[in-house]
Amino acid sequence: MKGKSSKPLFAARAAVTGVCLMIAMLALVACHGGKSSSSGPFTVGGTITGLNAGSVVLIYNGSTTVSVAAGATTWVFPGSFAANTSYSVTVLTQPVGELCEVTSGGTAATLTADVSNVVVTCSVYGQWTWEGGLNTVNASGVYATQGAAAATNLPGARYDSSSWTDSAGNFWLFGGYGYPAAGGLGALNDLWRFSPSTGLWTWVSGGNTDNASGVYGTQSTAAAGNMPGARYSASSWIDSSGTLWLFGGYGYDATGAVVGYLNDLWQYSSSTGLWTWVSGGNTINAGGTYGTQGIPVAGNVPGARYSASTWVDSSGDLWLFGGYGYNSSTGLGALNDLWRYSPGTGLWTWISGGSTDDSGGVYGTQGTAASTNVPGARQAANSWIDSAGNLWLFGGYGYDGSGAVGYLNDLWRYSLSSAVWTWVSGGNAHNAAGIYGTEGTAAAGSLPGARQAANSWIDSSGNMWLFGGSGYSSTGDVGYLDDLWRYSVSSGEWTWVSGGNGENAAGSYGTQGSISASTVPGGRQAANSWIDSSGHLWLFGGSGYGSAGNGYLNDLWQYVPP
Prior knowledge:
By secondary structure, this protein is mostly beta strands. The chain contains one helix and 38 strands. Helix content is 4%, strand content 42%. The termini are far apart. The relative contact order is 0.10.
């Protein structure tokens, strides 16, 4: 029988030890890029994605920097760094319109090899993108086939239209004053739907000409032939059922004989495609029937008016404030009455404010609610509703604390639970210039200038947004504005976010659909606004400045907030 090997045991152990050492050396080579942990120095770099609009500056341990240009996919710090030291890679300077973050590999306790796995990810924010429409003014509409989406479809240039966002995320647009298909200029009653997912417009309902009379049919009865008359500066809501609501404005009644102020209430069902005349008159210039404040009665109805402000509360009730129109005695002027309409009962209730016109504001003490407080009569103010159900109102054109008329920049809050107004912010005098501060920085002293016909949104974090309008810039001059502001309910501070601090700026469009640090809509008033499910702000048309010249607009913009 063959015996065991006579090879010495220490020799076998040496061979095993040699193999282990070889494996360890190979591992070190793989981990350290060929350099041992004691050698150094080492380089530090990585990859970057999503950087499209500008350059980002990265910094190593608070000292060494590298500027990474738009479009880059990799980067590395200049020079090299001592071995066996800790390191941290952070963003020193953000690109305009984008947010970059070090998402992995940015820190380590010991630098033992060349590093190439620091990942920087950038995303678009705080930047306007021209998404559709024209960069010129006074364009006619392209209607094509009613009910069919098409890449060539486009609403004509217009201002003071009404708008909604449905539960599917579609944007709706109705009427306004502007250009129909034939290129004539007048009041419109076309209904459009825009899909953000496809980028296509659909002409849904109404005419493709201007100054059409209303077809009212039978009150409270939906019918295929029903159609609100052409109008602008109407008020709008959308309820939890997806029903679109439209009230008043300035335009054409059932007779179509003459244009005037309206107080008709309509609803549109997106599922049936039918309009219903719900409440109010089918003739122009009707006075209001106020009844007793706080008591809903079948005969109550707001007077005919345009440019009122609106909200929808958590119960689905529709709220209406002010505007310019007819009071209880058929006097014509600015209004400060607050109304509630309950779709469940079909009744209007006069809640607050006066039944006369041109009333000055009662401001009380800033920040203190009081039963005597009430905003002055005004038109074209902005409105928001917060997560607590409070109604917010900003600016417009109307009457200040002294009863003088002009542009306003006061911010008010109305509590549904206590039924009391609070003057929150801004001035109690008219025609105040804007205090812009530093762009992107919230400050107690920052404040938008007095203005009317601006656009407003509220985001999922409860921040209130305001864009443009007609009013006062930082210099105290009056014109069309293109400034974007954010108000934090929690801090009570305004932030100038984007746009200029002057007036009458032309739009900087860039390439349609492409991100650029320099793109911004031109100064304008009475545009339309929506917010999508991602929290992006959208803006359409208005009266103001395209890339060159002043007129009516039909450009579509998207803004991604920070």
